Amino acid sequence: MAENILEVENLSVEFNGQKVLENINFSVGRGDVLAVIGPNGSGKSVLFRALLGLIPYSGRIDWQPRLKISYVPQKLAIDRGLPLTVKEFLGLKATSKEKILQALASVGIDIGPEHEHHLEHHILNRRMGLLSGGEFQRILVAWSLVDNPDVLLFDEPTTGIDIGGEETIYNLLHELQEKIKLTIVLISHDLNIVYKYAKTVICLNRQQVCFGEPHTVLNPEELSSLYGGEVKFYHHKH
Q1: What is the pLDDT of residues 85-118, one digit of tens each?
Q2: Global pTM?
Q3: What are phi and psi of 80, to 5 degrees?
Q4: Secondary structure of the chain: what % helix, strand, coil (to 5)?
Q5: Domains along the chain?
């Protein structure tokens, strides 16, 4: 059984006297994938901000010491006219060219020595604002991996991406999780993806509706309670 690298007890968040999250309890094991689901306005992104220590909260959030945590937001608005290349963007965080190439390789953009002389035509030198949705997400994942994090918090990793690109991003995250034991906590609206990739799932609607393995807790009754009506989904078999 994996050691817990995160334990959350009685977590509550309040804005202007109104409870946004109330009495949330869960844990995450090293190398696990935890999916956070719930309707719009249920507190999913607020939970992330609390986990990152960006907002006040009551209760206990206990990360294992000396963890490196990386966060990819749902939206990163970049002016399409901004003359910022992929290389310059990754260079904001990377300390060397090797780290940039390593991060790109980890997201399936491999630049071997034989391609070095073609770099001027490569994605590295394209402007961030001119990338496709799928390319942009890959670069965001690469950016989050530059400093070799232990934990990746990913808020809706495939917003605005077509289904083919969406599967690619999740397959990529799955490979990284297996290869380097990366712990992933992700927010997703896609229950099919949750079944396919998550080890555990927490259901939020300001309060905690469920927590456990997807095939155990994601039943029609719980989902109806969570989303307030009939929810259609397909159960992926492993």
Answers
A1: 999 999 999 888 888 888 888 777 776 555 555 5
A2: 0.83
A3: -65, -20
A4: 35, 25, 35
A5: 1-67+150-238 (3.40.50.300), 78-148 (no CATH)
Amino acid at 28: V
**Contacts of residue 216, Cβ cutoff 8 Å, sequence gap at least 6:** none
- Residue 72 and residue 152: Cα distance in Å, rounded? 8
The better pLDDT of the pair 22, 132 is held by 22
Q: CA 32, CA 199: separation in Å to the nearest integer? A: 6
State residue 45's pLDDT score: 92
Distances (CA, A) of 35 to 126, 174, 214: 33, 13, 9
Strand-pairing partners, residue 50, are: none
- Alpha-helical (H) ranges within the chain are 44-51, 86-91, 97-106, 133-145, 163-180, 191-197, 214-217, 220-227
33-43 pLDDT, tens digit per residue, is: 999 999 988 99
C-alpha distances (whole Å) from 18 to each of 13, 15, 57, 131, 206 are 8, 5, 12, 40, 11
